[in-house]
């Protein structure tokens, strides 16, 4: 059964490429989620990605206590296709046409393969776009905020496991040194963490060297003898097989879609490995963008909202422990509860009206 509100698949007028926009839910507000411009063996694989990622955006906003819905856009590039500047603008304008046709139901932002400059190109046609460069009125690159949000999640887990939120001396394996992974690795190194890193691009070893990190191949890193594994790469890193090989006590990172299948969360739990759901640990970027561009809060307040991921994770781990659940179950129950609350007209007002105003039954809303 399709549990998305709408999915548009459109052949771009200029690029002739498949533009996919999946709107999973607008129960909490208009949908937001990034544009992934990436290579896929077949455009249907891009559709699968859009469906999964847009549902994760719904969960991301619900857990963060923000009044936005979940969506995602994907342009599925055939394997090996490179876009020159002209073709790229064509693609972005094709995406902008689809977004404009949705009349505000969905706004896009950066994701894998897209940048604030790309958002500027989309912004030439439609206002429904986040993270344009600051000189064009946007909140700019979301990656540093995603990295800070993941750091906040790591602090909560570290405190639970080791009694301190400081990551100094902690052994962490960062899997993927893209924009977010590299930012996060820098923050961790600055705090004195002992890093092991990897990326599929061997050139990224330079970043590892700068940070004094140990380099491992992507195949080896999940079995590294570290305290916490930090997924920051594309793709479902955790399969039943790789989960069985882990030697760490926790898996917490900013990557989307970390689990190959949902049952891997149970496997991790059985092995007493704490897994913070990806849609909780990766929310910093959207929290910052939406807070600044939609709620018009100050940069300082937006940072505080990103930092509050630490409390959100703390609460989730508490709830999970109290109910004998794994964190993934606790998080999806929280999502269901928050979506149910707003779709029931007799219930309390949506959390947009309760940001920072905790009610007795929904203490979690205070975090954002
Ligand atoms: C994500 O968090 O997965 C995103 O899609 C990034 C994003 C950032 C800012 C606005 C919308 C989406």
Can you put this structure into words, describing what you see?
The structure is a single chain. 42% of the residues lie in helices and 15% in strands. By secondary structure, it is an alpha/beta fold. The chain folds into 2 domains: 6-132 and 347-365, Rossmann fold; 143-285 and 292-324, 3-Layer(aba) Sandwich (Rossmann fold). Strand 1 and strand 2 form a beta hairpin. The longest helix has 22 residues, at 43-64. It is globular and about 55 Å long. Bound molecules: 3-phenylpyruvic acid (PPY). The site of 3-phenylpyruvic acid has 14 residues, from helix 11.
Global outline: globular
* Distinct helical segment count: 14
Q: Name the hetero compounds present.
A: 3-phenylpyruvic acid
Can you tell me the CATH class of the largest domain?
Alpha Beta
Major sheet attributes: 6 strands, mixed
Strand percent estimate: 5-15%
**CATH H level of the largest domain: which superfamily?**
NAD(P)-binding Rossmann-like Domain
**CATH fold descriptor of the largest domain:** Rossmann fold
Could you state the oligomeric state of the chains shown?
single chain
Radius of gyration: 20 Å
Helix content: 40-55%
Count of domain modules: 2
Helix- and strand-based class?
alpha/beta
Which sequence of SSEs, written as H and E, runs from N to C? EEEEHEHEHHEHEHEHEHEHEHHHHH
Based on the structure given, which CATH architecture of the largest domain is correct? Answer: 3-Layer(aba) Sandwich
Cα distance spanning the termini:
32 Å
Question: Overall pLDDT, averaged?
Answer: 92
Number of strands: 12
Given as residue ranges, the uncertain stretches (5+ residues, pLDDT < 50) are 348-368
């Amino acid at each position: 059964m399709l549990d998305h509100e709408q999915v548009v698949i459109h052949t771009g007028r200029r690029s002739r490429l498949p533009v996919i926009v999946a709107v999973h839910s607008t129960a909490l507000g208009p949908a937001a989620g990034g544009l992934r411009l990436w290579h896929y063996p077949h455009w249907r694989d891009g559709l699968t990605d859009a469906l999964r990622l847009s549902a994760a955006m719904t969960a991301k906003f619900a857990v963060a206590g923000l009044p936005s819905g979940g969506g995602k856009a994907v342009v599925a590039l055939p394997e090996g296709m490179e876009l020159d500047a002209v073709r790229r603008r064509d693609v972005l304008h094709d995406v902008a046409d689809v977004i404009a046709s949705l009349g505000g139901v969905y706004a896009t932002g950066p994701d894998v393969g897209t940048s604030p400059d790309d958002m500027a190109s989309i912004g030439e046609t439609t206002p429904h776009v986040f993270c344009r460069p600051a000189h064009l009125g946007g909140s700019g690159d979301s990656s540093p905020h995603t990295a800070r949000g993941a750091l906040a999640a790591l602090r909560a887990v570290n405190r639970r496991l080791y009694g301190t939120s400081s990551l100094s001396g902690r052994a962490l394996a960062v899997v993927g040194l893209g924009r977010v992974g590299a930012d996060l690795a820098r923050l961790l190194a600055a705090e004195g963490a002992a890093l092991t890193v990897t990326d599929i691009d061997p050139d990224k070893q330079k970043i590892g060297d700068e940070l004094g990190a140990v380099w491992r191949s992507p195949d080896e890193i999940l079995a590294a003898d570290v305290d916490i594994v930090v997924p920051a790469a594309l793709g479902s890193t955790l399969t039943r097989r790789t989960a069985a090989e882990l030697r760490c006590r926790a898996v917490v990172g900013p990557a989307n879609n970390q689990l190959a299948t949902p049952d891997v969360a149970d496997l991790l739990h059985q092995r007493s490995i704490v897994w913070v759901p990806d849609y909780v640990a990766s929310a910093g970027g959207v929290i910052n963008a939406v807070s600044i561009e939609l709620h018009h809060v100050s940069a300082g307040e937006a940072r505080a909202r990103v930092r509050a991921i630490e409390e959100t994770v703390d609460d989730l781990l508490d709830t999970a422990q109290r109910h004998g659940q794994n964190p993934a179950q606790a998080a999806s129950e929280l999502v269901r509860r928050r979506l149910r609350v707003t779709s029931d007209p007799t219930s309390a007002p949506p959390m947009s009206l309760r940001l920072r105003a905790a009610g007795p039954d929904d203490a979690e809303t205070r975090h954002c």
